[in-house]
Specification:
779 residues, Glutaredoxin, Glycosyltransferase, globular, Ssp411-like_TRX, Spermatogenesis-associated protein 20-like TRX domain-containing protein, Thioredoxin-like_sf
Length: 779
């Protein structure tokens, strides 16, 4: 009898770059249970999304200005060059792939296969179990496991001789990732990447985990030991493993079913919204802001819900509290080390409760959602601080994550080679500073300041730079940040200026000079790996960000960049003949856009996020081609993914027999659920087009998720916003005037400056006559 003893000491968020150590023991029935736990950078337990509640934290601190570099929003990223090793000892078939993650494993001593029929047929032909390893190119612990285990000759031989080894990029195939992550979470209570799952030749999972150290560490079995025990059990106890896999898949099919009962209506929006707010407020921490304790993730979906909740409850204490929670969280993140104060943009998450020491990868989907959250905070509060942060994010994306074609790259890695050199990459090496480096590059004396104050003195005081470094030992268990400083704003501009006896104007001048010079130093450091894969879904999110920020600020450059992104999606990720979206495309060696053959067909989130982005682009530019394409995509989404029996959308369409579960995503996490976004899309499109079937589909979708919305709405805050939009009556603003006239533009700017969250058609403008504009919204 096989006994599985799994214990995850902690798990990273399902979109974060770092996985916590996991241990597994495969023991005889009479053997003792063994488990393992291992510290990483200060992580605590992250519950399975179906078993816990999201949490939120905040901390008040003095306001400080954000200083922006010159905004050249249409500049494009050049990327980083990573020349391959000369004459690699091993080369496997992953060398023929385009995924940056798969290419990172192309020279492992492992006989890797990409996900596909060649691997499946080999497993059946040779009657071998499958080892499926899932990750993505900017995942820190994926790098660690590759370096420790997949580059190990002995482990590589064991894997190649006894398993059919498949490497999967979860960003390319989220449908496959969701199936096996559901299995890992259901059998353990948590999950993360790298994900390690063992399958029967017919793809049914029987053992799963995340990161494994290569060798035994005390009572924690290493990867080699785990492999040997699985081989023994496959040889001696195969029937049990296969029946276990069969039973688990059958149970997951039943347990993951989301369906509406015949005639069921969506739950009452005010009740659901109040419960969602109470669940967030219960986990709110008043000092620093954010959701739950360390590790702390931005979760923009929660922030957007809180601001929307305030908009209809602004006269109540609950509404005021909701707004304070959102604005304070956004402010503290902007002041913290999770925000890159030199090169703009936001890192993935904070390993501590004060937003100080981040996990340093930067993801496109974070930048997109945070830009929208910050511009919304500007609309709500009128504070320029928030608008500056939104522009700061888009400056980073334009410079470092933009392709010449108009598309957006997926991510920048957390790890890079230190400027001092060395064979190994280190997390945060591109971003952190020693006190001596700051002094070396900022020696200039500040005129008018007390004593012989230098640029370095002002910079170090304002950003909390210490001689011994400012990263606590518990935040740096591997010693990668010893003696280093992660910049975090410790004082307001006023306090720092007063401390050195200078004016605010002089302080701003000093900081602009200092930040610009430190940015130049960063540019000559070895850059982190850039994942140049371009995903339809994340490009859709980024399209929304440029369109919405551009509309609010009346910034034509940002709107032009949004149009570029829309043209990119249509040119490279849409097949008009087959009426299909593609999931991804890639930057070639000559900077051209490349596609694989056959392309990966788009999934639900590709359609939903692009439709949302196109609607935002239409509302920002009033160019009807974007609305027409959004209608076309929505109709295709309905045909591919809609559940005619139970309502709502499946994540993937049914033609791929290798995907064992048809799932409906039921959590708004690092990205919103595609069903949540679709509920809003359907409402907006029904208003644009008058098509009642789309309104009915939105209602059926919300009814399908009634149990989740009623019991734990905090898991679906974006869907709660869609439910609230169903509840509030639409109204219209009619602007009469010449389309190009300055007074018409002024009225449009005034409307765009307002936060009107539950509009089925935010800034929906239709030309009625040559001289009349109509804008619809809800209150």
């Amino acid at each position: 009898m096989l006994r599985q003893a799994w214990r995850w000491s902690a798990f990273r968020d399902t979109r974060a770059g770092t996985a916590r150590f996991v241990a597994a023991s495969f023991l005889a029935a009479d053997g003792p249970r063994r488990s393992s736990a291992g510290p990483t950078r200060g992580f605590g337990n992250i519950p399975h999304p179906l078993r816990g509640r999201s949490q939120l934290l905040l901390q008040p601190q003095s306001v400080s200005a954000i200083y922006l570099s010159p905004s050249v929003f249409l500049s494009m990223a050049s990327g980083s060059s990573h020349p391959p090793s000369t004459h690699p000892k091993h080369t496997n078939r992953l060398a023929n792939e385009r995924s940056p993650y798969l290419l990172q494993h192309a020279h492992n001593p492992v006989d890797w296969y990409p996900w596909g029929h060649e691997a499946f047929e080999k497993a059946k032909r040779e009657d071998k179990p499958i080892f499926l390893s899932v990750g993505y190119s900017t995942c820190h612990w994926c790098h660690v496991m590759e370096r420790e285990s997949f580059k190990d000759e002995e482990i590589g031989q064991i894997l190649s001789d006894n398993f059919v080894c498949i490497k999967l990029d979860r960003e390319e195939r989220p449908d496959v990732d969701k199936v096996y992550m559901t299995f890992v979470q259901a059998t353990s209570g948590g999950g993360g990447w790298p994900m390690s799952v063992w399958l029967t030749p017919d793809l049914r999972p029987f053992i799963g985990g995340t990161y494994f150290p290569p060798r035994d560490q005390g009572r924690r079995p290493g990867f080699k030991t785990v492999l040997i025990r699985i081989i023994e059990q496959w040889q001696n106890n195969r029937a049990t493993l296969e029946s276990s896999g069969e039973r688990i898949i059958d149970a997951l099919k039943k347990g993951t079913t989301i369906t509406a009962n015949p005639g069921e209506s969506p739950p009452l929006a005010p009740d659901v919204a109040n419960r969602c707010f109470q669940q967030l407020a219960h986990s709110y921490e008043e000092e620093y802001g954010g959701f739950k304790d360390a590790p702390k993730f931005p979760t923009p979906v929660n922030l957007m819900f809180l601001m929307s909740y305030w908009s209809v409850n602004c006269s109540t204490s609950e509404g005021v509290e909701a707004l304070q929670m959102a604005l304070h969280t956004l402010r503290m993140m902007a002041l913290g080390g999770i925000h890159d104060h030199i090169a703009q943009g936001f890192h993935r998450y904070s390993t501590d409760s004060s937003w100080h020491v981040p996990h340093f990868e930067k993801m496109l989907y974070d930048q997109a959602q945070l830009a929208v959250a910050y511009i919304t905070a500007f609309q709500v509060s009128g504070e320029q601080f928030y608008a500056d942060v939104a522009k700061d994010i888009l400056l980073y994306v334009s410079r470092d994550l933009s392709d010449e074609s108009g598309g957006f790259y997926s991510a920048e890695d957390a790890d890079s080679v230190p400027a001092s050199g060395g064979p190994e990459k280190r997390e945060g090496a591109f971003c952190v500073w020693t006190a001596s480096e700051v002094r070396e590059h900022l020696p200039d004396v500040v005129e008018g300041a007390v004593g012989a104050t230098t640029l370095a003195d002002v910079f170090m005081h304002h950003f909390g730079v210490k001689e011994q470094g400012n990263v606590a030992a518990e935040q740096d268990p591997h010693g990668e940040l010893q003696g280093k400083n992660v910049l975090i704003i410790r004082y307001s501009a006023e306090l720092t200026a007063a401390h050195f006896g200078i004016t605010i104007e002089k302080f701003n001048e000093v900081m602009t000079t200092a930040r610009g010079r430190m940015a130049e130093v960063r540019q000559i450091r070895p850059r982190p790996h850039l994942d140049t894969k371009m995903l339809a879904s994340w490009n859709g999110l980024m399209l929304s960000a440029f369109a919405r920020v551009g509309a609010v600020l009346g910034n034509e450059v940002l709107l032009e960049r949004a149009v570029q992104a829309g043209n990119f999606l249509k040119a490279h990720l849409w097949d008009p003949d087959q009426q299909n979206m593609f999931r991804s495309c890639y930057r070639g060696d000559q900077m051209e856009v490349q596609q694989i053959s056959p392309p990966i067909c788009g999934f639900l989130d590709d359609y939903a996020f692009v439709v949302s982005g196109l609607l935002d682009l239409y509302e920002a530019t009033f160019q009807t081609e974007w609305l027409r394409w959004a209608e076309e995509l929505q109709a295709r989404q309905d045909a591919l993914f809609w559940d005619n029996q139970g309502g709502g959308y499946f994540c993937s369409e049914p033609s791929d027999a290798a995907v064992l579960l048809r799932l409906k995503e039921d959590q708004d996490g690092a990205e919103p659920s595609a069903n949540s976004v679709s509920a809003s899309n359907l409402l907006r499109l029904s208003h644009y087009t008058g098509r009642q079937e789309w309104l009915q589909k939105s209602q059926q979708l919300l009814a399908a998720f009634s149990n989740r919305l009623t019991s734990i709405p905090v898991a679906l805050p974006e869907m709660v916003r869609a439910l609230m939009a169903q509840h509030y009556t639409l109204k219209q603003i009619v602007i009469c005037g010449q389309t190009e006239a300055s007074d018409t533009a002024g009225l449009l700017a005034a409307v765009n400056s307002l936060f009107l969250p539950f509009k089925v058609a935010p800034q929906h403008i239709t030309i009625i006559h040559e001289d009349t504009l109509l804008m619809s919204y809800s209150t």
